[in-house]
Amino acid sequence: MVPGMDGTLLKSAFDQALSYDQYLSGDSGKAAAWHAVKAELTAEQRSLLAGFRRRMPVLVISGVWCGDCVQQGPMLHAIAQAAPCIDQRWVDRDAVPQLRDQVRICGGHRVPTVIWMAEDFEFVSLLGDRTLPRYRALAARQLGPSCPLPGSPLPPDEAAATLQAWLDEYERVQLLLRLSGRLRQKHGD
Hints:
Elements: H1 7-16, H2 20-25, H3 28-36, H4 43-50, E1 56-62, H5 67-81, E2 86-92, H6 97-102, E3 113-117, E4 123-128, H7 132-142, H8 156-179, H9 181-187
Parallel strand pairs: 1-2
Antiparallel strand pairs: 1-3, 3-4
């Protein structure tokens, strides 16, 4: 039901959601793993993000307990920190059941799931629970002869590709918002 997602539900969930630091402060034991992950943007990536102009409310549905969230959450936070127009908030997967149920992926409640919205909370895009580079790397490991231990660190090339894939989606949404006829008329640009 995602394409016709109700803006009222999105705004309500966004208003209930927390900043990254507030979200992690709810479970300091598990938050340590999040803080151990270093998500470093390149100068080129920072420059791209600094050029974003259109306000983007972004809601991350997550779980502090989730291994994928631990590995990718700091990446999402680094992206939002580098672009002042990104207003990113975090909500536990089970905190807003109606929203959780509307964003099921492949029949499951997957996290992290990211919802991008226009400034008036109109739905724009959704991506979850892993980017394509992350799925490719997992498939190479899990569909082959061995599986890594849960919680093991991402290899640097996989982490960089995953970060870039998330950044690409933020850029795609920003360009969609900048080129939106409705928003261009509203902002006179």
